[in-house]
Inverse folding.
């Protein structure tokens, strides 16, 4: 929505084009970089960056860790229940914060791009 708002807000002859599919298919690191370019909130950006290591562990290492651990060849750092609880709480707070940000952005979007706003 930020990119759509920017695109609708720039005066001619300036044009701001973006590809929604690139945003939808971008990896997490790229998405964080993109939001940092349109959102002036260093605290939020840092919180998003902090979650990357846990996202990578969950998304990329969990299967390999389990597979290699069965063969006693795992060189991954083990994580206990406290680690999982910490990332779960942090993730829930971050999702709530992003939800609040999205609601605020929707209000701006409705004003700038009324033809694309959902009822």
């Amino acid at each position: 929505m930020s990119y759509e708002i920017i695109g609708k807000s720039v005066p001619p002859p300036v044009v701001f084009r973006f590809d929604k599919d690139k945003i939808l298919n971008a990896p997490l690191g790229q998405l964080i970089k993109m939001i940092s370019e349109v959102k002036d909130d260093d605290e939020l950006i840092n919180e998003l960056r902090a979650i990357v290591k846990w996202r990578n562990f969950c998304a990329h290492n969990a299967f390999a860790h389990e597979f290699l651990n069965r063969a006693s060849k795992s060189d991954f750092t083990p994580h206990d229940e406290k680690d999982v609880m910490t990332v779960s709480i942090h993730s829930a707070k971050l999702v709530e914060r992003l939800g609040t940000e999205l609601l605020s952005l929707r209000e701006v979007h409705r004003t700038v791009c009324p033809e694309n706003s959902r009822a």
Q: What stands out?
A: Helices lie at 2-9, 20-24, 28-38, 42-70, 81-112. The chain has a mean pLDDT of 85. The longest helix spans residues 81-112.
